[in-house]
Amino acid sequence: MPLAAAAAAATAAVASGQTVCVTGAGGFIASWLVKLLLQKGYSVRGTVRNPDDSKNAHLKELDGAKERLTLYAADLLHFENLKAAIMGCDGIFHTASPVTDDLEKMDEAIIGTKNVITAAAEAKVRRVVFTSSIGTVHMNPNQNPDIVVDESCWSDLDFCKNTKNWYCHAKTIAEQTAWAMAEEKGVDLVVVNPMLVLGPLLQQTINASVVHIMKYLTGSVKTYVNAVQGYVHVKDVAKVHVLVYETPSAFGRYICAETMLHRAELVEILADLFPEYPVPTKCCDEKNPKKKAYKFSVKKVKDLGMAEFIPVKQCIYETVKSLQEKGHLPLPLPTRPHQSMSFC
């Protein structure tokens, strides 16, 4: 048997008979994760607020969903409902978390994390994979620009609070809470820290990270900010989640990113790929020096077997095409013929 076929067979054997829970299954990352888990042969329990809500219909249409996907009505704030979905599972992928600066909802992320770890301990699951964020890693004004940001770095909570970055503040507390409770309760925890996630939508609704791209195409903003941002494809984020779950030696945190762009580079790519849209050409801050990207490392996840990430241009292109196909972005009359995209 060829090596690739043997590896695939071994993976299928690992997944066969295993049941895993994905919290917030209808979300952007979670939907791709459910799709991948089903493809690999897992039985999946997805928690959603309402299994009959039409916004979760895409999950029921995934290959293998009829046979191996069950949706549970479970709010992260209601422990007993959450525990019912988790009991009997081999593992948990905790992806559910509000992406907002609403302080009340941010508290929900922390309470939900506590409930997931507690339920995991009671269910004696093999491993919990927690979807965190690069926002728990790099928000530190004292970070030396010559020092590479890696999994040992943590965001400064006071800095997050003083800059009113409540999302990063809550995500940092939620992740720290997860680590503390996992140690206390003997839960095997691994964390994925992705940068801003792009790529095609499986769900019908627009998520916060995709709005990051969409706003530069609708004319709703006339300038771009003097800022840098790291990007990663949603398929790669799902792949890393499964990789750290299936690899016994995986431990700690794993940064997940392809590259960083200044916003000027982002709008340049958008204008080149989609010249029909009113992409802004001016920065709102022309007085201060152009912000520089910090250095980051993905060595840890590559050492685990993640050989390469999908290129950022492909991430951006697929995001926009998906927005068009889903009807979120109008199709303007082209100013010039689109060339077929080739990403090498």
Automatic annotation (TrEMBL):
InterPro entries: Epimerase_deHydtase, NAD(P)-bd_dom_sf, NAD(P)_dehydrat-like. GO terms for biological process: lignin biosynthetic process. The keyword Oxidoreductase applies. Residues 20-250 form the NAD-dependent epimerase/dehydratase domain. Its EC number is 1.2.1.44. One of its GO terms (molecular function) is cinnamoyl-CoA reductase activity. Pfam families: Epimerase. It is an enzyme of class 1 (oxidoreductase). Pathway: Aromatic compound metabolism; phenylpropanoid biosynthesis. It catalyses: (E)-sinapaldehyde + NADP(+) + CoA = (E)-sinapoyl-CoA + NADPH + H(+); (E)-cinnamaldehyde + NADP(+) + CoA = (E)-cinnamoyl-CoA + NADPH + H(+); (E)-4-coumaraldehyde + NADP(+) + CoA = (E)-4-coumaroyl-CoA + NADPH + H(+); (E)-coniferaldehyde + NADP(+) + CoA = (E)-feruloyl-CoA + NADPH + H(+). Keywords: Disulfide bond, NADP, Oxidoreductase. Belongs to the NAD(P)-dependent epimerase/dehydratase family. Dihydroflavonol-4-reductase subfamily. PANTHER family: CINNAMOYL-COA REDUCTASE 1, NAD DEPENDENT EPIMERASE/DEHYDRATASE. This is cinnamoyl-CoA reductase. It comes from Cucurbita maxima (Pumpkin).
